[in-house]
Amino acid sequence: MTIHFRQPEPLFIEAGANAVLLLHAYSGSSNDMGMIGRGLARDGYTVYAPMFAGHGTMEPRDIITRGGVAAWLKNAQDAVTFLKAHGYQQIAVFGLSMGGLFATRLLEVDSTLVGGGTFASPVIRVGQTNVPQSFLSLSNKIYSRTQMSADEKQQSLDWLAQHNPEQLSDIEDFVQTQVAANLQMINKPFFIAQGDADQMIDPGSGAAFNERMESLNKDVTFKLYPNAGHVLTVNNAHHQLQTDVEEFLERLF
């Protein structure tokens, strides 16, 4: 039996003069941003949700072999360039989980952006993370949809278990030495969203990030979503998240 897989593609909808860049999560794709992106487009915003290198394939090893912090930061910066090349000068940027780390970094180093923020993103580390276990579990599900033999699948999972921690360590180092260390450089309004039932990162992460931004006297908006898990853009919080993001965007543009 042949398994047909439709690879996710970047989402680009031109719907208005103001643009919103949406960056997806570590083991996700542009599909993470489909609902909120289309909702924002209906509200008159141009939306771009690019793909990070190595993502959206049926081979989870691609995330490690083709991706990495340097590649993903360049992807994020190239996405801003892409929007500007299409004539958009007023750009906000948001990111889900890992995408939020890069959205925050863009807001630190690119003064042309008008603002943005994070959805369930561990910019300030609190407690433990379940990312390693979740990544292996998702990889197992992906491999189960292929024609791999049991031995091939196990070899691939063993390879991921060996190499994934190193990449996650690189991401953590990036967060500590570049992102969290330079929050004072952000001088535009910032939005932080967090679900209080997040099982991927500690749900206290959002509040801790908000407290850090407030201590730096930043213009920060913090929204906590009751009974909402990690992927706020598609779970039970996504309608309220879109409403809150749209209200925030009205302040920026």
Q: What does this entry look like structurally?
A:
With 253 residues, the protein is of the alpha/beta class. The protein is 45% helix and 14% strand. It contains 8 helices and 7 strands, in the order ββαβααβαβααβαβα. It has helices spanning 34-42, 61-65, 69-85, 98-109, 131-144, 150-179, 205-215, 238-252, and strands at residues 11-13, 19-23, 46-49, 91-96, 115-119, 190-195, 220-225. The chain has a 7-stranded mixed β-sheet, with helices on both faces. β4, α4 (98-109) and β5 (115-119) form a beta-alpha-beta unit. α1 (34-42) packs across α8, α3 packs across α4 (98-109) and α5 (131-144) packs antiparallel against α6. The mean pLDDT is 96.
